[in-house]
Structures are given as C-alpha cells and as structure tokens.
TrEMBL record:
Protein name: 2-oxoglutarate reductase
General function of this protein: Catalyzes the reversible oxidation of 3-phospho-D-glycerate to 3-phosphonooxypyruvate, the first step of the phosphorylated L-serine biosynthesis pathway. Also catalyzes the reversible oxidation of 2-hydroxyglutarate to 2-oxoglutarate.
Keyword Zinc found: no
Organism: Desulfoscipio geothermicus DSM 3669
PROSITE patterns found in the cross-reference section: D_2_HYDROXYACID_DH_2, D_2_HYDROXYACID_DH_3
C-alpha cells in the first residue's frame, strides 16, 4: 500500500502505515503545487483539514482506494466525488471529542472568572479584587447545538458542574439514551438560543448549518450570553457576529474556528470581548496520538477489505 500524508501527523500512526509499504509524509504537501503528481500512484491518502480534496485532485490519483481524515469534520473533502469514484473515507470518530469538551470548559471558565485579564492587571501593579468579581457556571444554562460525540460528552461534564442543559439536534435518535442520562432538555433552535447563558456549537459544516447563527438568530441571544464556536467558521455569519459583539448585544464569543483560517483583516481581531484560538480545540497530545493510530488502523482495515466502524456512509 502506498500512502501519502499531506498534513501534520503523529509518528505513532505513521509507523503503523510504514509497516504496510511506502509512506510519503510531508506536513506541508497540502499547499504544494506538486501534490497531484505525488499522489498519482497513491492507494491511501491521509489528510487533516487543510487539504482540499476536490474532484479534480482525485482525478489525479486513479489508484486511490481510501482516504483517512485525521479528525472529524469532512467539509474539506468532496464526498460526492469519493462516492462516485468508489473511494472509502474513514475519519477519527470520537478521538478528539474530550479535548474539544475541555476547550469549551477552558473558555467558559475564562469568561466567568477572567484569569488572564486579572493576571495582566496584577502584573501591572494593581490589586483590583472587586473589578474581577466573577460568576459561577453552577446554575447557568448551557445550550448545545449539535448533540453528537462532542455534545454528549460536554453535557456529561457540564452536568457535573451543576449547569442546566438545553439541546437542539434534529437528528437525535442515535443519542437518545445518552441525552436521557445526561438530562439534556430538548428544545428547538430558537428555544436554545433565547434561553442559554452559553451557546456551544457542535455541528458539522454543511448546506443546512452554514450561517446557522446569523443576524436574525443573534438578535435572540441574551445580552449576557456567550457563544462558543469550536465547530466550523462557516456555521456563524462573522459579519453579523462582529456587529452583535461590537454593539454589546451579546457578552462575548470564543472562536476556535473562522471562515478564513488564518484570518486576514478580520474586524473580530480588534474586539476585547472575543477569545480567538488557532483551531486548537481538538489539538492535544492525547487526542492526536489516538487520532493517528485510529486512522492508520482503519485505513489499513479498508485496504484489506475489512469492515471499519469509522467509515463515512453517504
Ligand atoms: N475545533 C476542532 O478542533 C474540532 C472541531 N470539530 C467540529 O465539530 C463537529 C462536531 O463533531 P462531533 O460531535 O464529533 O460530530 P458528530 O457527528 O458526532 O455530531 C454532530 C451532531 O450534529 C448534529 N447535526 C447535524 N446537522 C445539524 C443541524 N442542522 N442542527 C443541529 N444539529 C445538527 C448531528 O445530528 C450530530 O448529532 C465536527 O463536524 C467538526 O466540524 C470536531 C473536532 C475538533
Ligand atoms: O483537523 C484538525 O486538525 C482539527 C480538528 C478538527 O477540526 C476536526 O477534527 O474536525
């Protein structure tokens, strides 16, 4: 099996793939013009979220049988083209979910307690205890939009903090049991947005979710509420979010993902009530070791004609 890996991967996965044959690993390959030539005889292609796996790119890899996605979001892969060409796609189901959940807690607690601003203030020689009076997560309402692998794990941990859980997910049945266990009150999108103190997005980016959070929905958000987007940039209309944040119609936002990554000239960069991180919610050592090993094993399974529980079904 000849494998080409176009983005950053952990060595544990690369070693497993090497046992199967030649591996070309170049973390910068996704942005190089030679990519189509390099994959011309590849049987397996491993990508993260920056490689644009278009129909045209796939045309240059006639031997390709399987694509491994080192993560969860599949919005950079033309899944209709892979289906048409009989190429299987496997992804790292659930491998980074706990890391994303812990990221959401990091930003919720930052909004509630301001540890970084307080540190900066103390280092300036101040001791402003009253100014940094915080608020508790206990008793607050967390609104989950998308209650899948990440949403259910976030619910479990938020429950332990004593938060009230509201959730919107129109494709709920597979998660019914988990939701009952974690006590998520189901609501429609508007209900979640109107009532939540923290709104956390955990949906894939597709036609239905593009700009799910827009000018109209933002008008429903409480002025004291925070929005957390660790899903995909396109799920929020950033211009509308900018206006809501700059006019203080909502309290703040934490954005791990943006419509354009990295951002160029985004007005969001200038706002004080925004936490911005470079798409790192799922990026922990633990999640990435798990991801690299899982994807390597599942790619090999597919290549050998075995069933994979991480294969994308269209
Ligand atoms: N920032 C980061 O590092 C990471 C970002 N992600 C993003 O988070 C997304 C969610 O990840 P998982 O929870 O693992 O995926 P998942 O597939 O387990 O869950 C997604 C949930 O969204 C629901 N959903 C789909 N369309 C919806 C809609 N229109 N409205 C409401 N709910 C809808 C589905 O029914 C499903 O329950 C990924 O697609 C990916 O884009 C995932 C991992 C890391
Ligand atoms: O692909 C990555 O490196 C980031 C993780 C992510 O966004 C995902 O798993 O969907």
């Amino acid at each position: 099996m000849k494998t080409v890996i176009t983005e950053l991967n952990w060595k544990q996965g690369n070693e497993i793939l090497s046992e199967m044959g030649e591996v070309i690993y170049d973390p910068e390959l996704w942005r190089k013009k030679e990519l189509p030539d390099i994959i011309h005889d590849a049987e397996a292609l491993i990508v993260r979220n920056q490689t644009k796996v278009s129909r045209t790119l796939l045309d240059s890899a006639p031997k390709l049988r399987v694509i491994g996605r080192l993560g969860v979001g599949l919005d950079n892969i033309d899944l209709q083209a892979t289906k048409d060409k009989g190429i299987s796609v496997v992804y790292a189901r659930n491998a980074n979910a706990i890391s994303v959940v812990e990221y959401v807690f990091a930003v919720m607690l930052t909004f509630a307690r301001h540890p970084v601003e307080a540190t900066t203030d103390v280092k300036r020689g101040n001791w402003n205890r009253k100014l940094f009076t915080g608020s508790e997560l206990y008793g607050k309402t967390l609104g989950l939009i998308g209650i899948g692998e990440i949403g259910t794990r976030l619910a479990a941990r938020a429950k332990a903090f004593g938060m009230h859980l509201l959730g919107y997910d129109p494709f709920l049945p597979p998660y019914e049991i988990a939701i009952a266990d974690f006590g998520v009150e189901q609501a429609n999108l508007e209900g979640v947005i109107r009532r939540a103190d923290f709104i956390s997005l955990h949906v894939p980016l597709n036609k239905a979710t593009r700009h799910l959070i827009n000018k109209q929905t933002l008008e429903l958000v409480k002025s004291t509420a925070y929005i957390i987007n660790s899903a995909r940039g396109g799920v929020i209309d950033e211009q509308a979010l900018y206006e809501a944040l700059s006019n203080k119609k909502i309290a703040g936002a934490a954005l791990d993902v943006l419509e354009q990554e990295p951002p160029t000239n985004s007005p969001l960069l200038k706002l004080d009530n925004v936490i911005l991180t470079p798409h790192i919610a799922g990026l922990t050592e633990e999640a990435q070791v798990k991801t690299s090993v899982l994807v390597a094993r599942e790619v090999i399974k597919v290549f050998q004609g075995q069933q994979s529980s991480c294969v994308v079904i269209l």
